[in-house]
Write a structure and sequence with these properties.
6 helices, about 25% strand, alpha/beta, globular, 6-stranded mixed β-sheet
Amino acid sequence: MRPERRWAELQEPPSRHVLWLSQDVPEARVREAAVSRGVTVNDVCLAALAQALKGWHRTHLARKEPCPDMYALMPMSVRQEHERHAPGNHVAGHRVTLPCSVSDLDEAVRRVHRQTDAVRAARARDVFRLAIRVLPSWLGEHASNTFTARRSTPIVVSSVALPTPMTCMGVPLYAASMFGDLCDDRLFSVFFTRAAGVVRCGVLYDGALPQAAALPGLWGAALHRRGL
């Protein structure tokens, strides 16, 4: 919950002019890379994002000092099968450190995987479900507002996988995008959508941070450099 004192650019006031860009890569390519490393597709996507942020820090923000790591808020669904149609939010958040300081994608993958593997081993999703059930609502709201604040996690990174094959109004789906909200005056959010054999990295960003338009391409380039 400590404030993030690095990446001062991400604490600028928003312009309220929101834009969106994306980059697609074949899911099979990313999955093969994930399997060969014993990690998940999402781990590889997050590691490539960290490398993209490193390149962005150096070239588009023109910063000469070493690139710092970045804290990101990763939403986690706690909705269970019997709650499929229940109203309201059934979501918690986990803070992940994007290892932007490392120079190698493989090392970034290892660092991301250590974090996501620890979340699974600790059964964090079940812990969140228990906390939501037993804590007073006012306490949960206060903790949520503190934990998800922009000052501690300047970006949101979310991921969803759609079933394959899938159709939309009778037409086969060939790609999908996820959109969200730049909540709490954040300047950008990143969405990974897996559908129809494509992994799409979508970036929703505020006009106060125009250089963010380069991030999807940098993400794809980070994967391409490793021959993925």
